[in-house]
Amino acid sequence: MARARQTLERRQLGLALRRIREESGKTQQAAAEAIGRVRSRIVELEDGKGTLSREDLVGLLDFYGISGDERETVLALGAQARKRQRGRTYTDLLPGAFQRFADLEASATEISSYESGVLPGLLQSPGYVRAVIEECDGVWWDATTDAELEQRIAFRLERQERSLSPAESRSFRFVLTEDSLRAVVGSPEVMREQLQHLAAAIDTRDDLVVQVLEQDASRNPARGGGFTVFGFGDKGSPVGFSSTVFSPSTYHSNEADTTIMLRAFRGIQSLALDRDRSRRLVEQISKGG
């Protein structure tokens, strides 16, 4: 395994391999021994600062017992990780893109997110998650069976649990638009549950700041769009993600791009209600106001 600079592709590969290793119940030491390497090389790889030859990657996947589509996707990530140059916009065209988004999300120490018209995934109640997936089923993906639908819902709820674990030292900043609170997703009952879920998160999580951008707010630099910036402290540079309804996942790791995205986020924050006024508005809307 050659030493390499950290790039988004190497991060994605490392995060995928860490998740797979942990799910398989293997240690980093055992993984290193399986391919004839030292543990520090596996650490470097999982931190997104290393690459593997195809032969070593195949051996590692054999050790983890990975086959089928997931195996092919990881091998393709490995090929990208060996080629990518630092600081370019990256479009994820491989299968399982949402899993890699969740891996990146769960590894971030700081998340700054702006969404318009829909509540951020990490703040969605179980009923809201189900309603959103049911609305999209058969449209953005082929119609699923009941079992497949439940798997999608379970994945999104597990994603929340991974990222919002209170054991982690992290910070979350969300700005959401007022129309996302007033839109009826699923049913009025689902929305009441969702607003109560959101209010509880605001009340109980000191590491989570939610601000609401009112409908009549002017000078919004991201009107109609959405984006997230993941921060990693001293483990890596920030990564930006552009939200779209239908297109491949697009990430930005160039410092100039993430600086602009954070500047836009701070600008939107300055236009939004503060935490306390946002909390009162959530409660008001939940009561029909």
TrEMBL record:
Report the InterPro entries cross-referenced here: Cro/C1-type_HTH, DUF5753, Lambda_DNA-bd_dom_sf
Protein name from the UniProt record: Helix-turn-helix domain-containing protein
User: Which PROSITE patterns does its entry note?
Assistant: HTH_CROC1
Pfam families reported for this sequence: DUF5753 (PF19054), HTH_31 (PF13560)
Organism from which the protein derives: Saccharopolyspora shandongensis
Annotated ranges, domain HTH cro/C1-type: 17-71
Query: Mind listing the GO molecular function terms for this protein?
Result: DNA binding
Domain of life, source organism: Bacteria
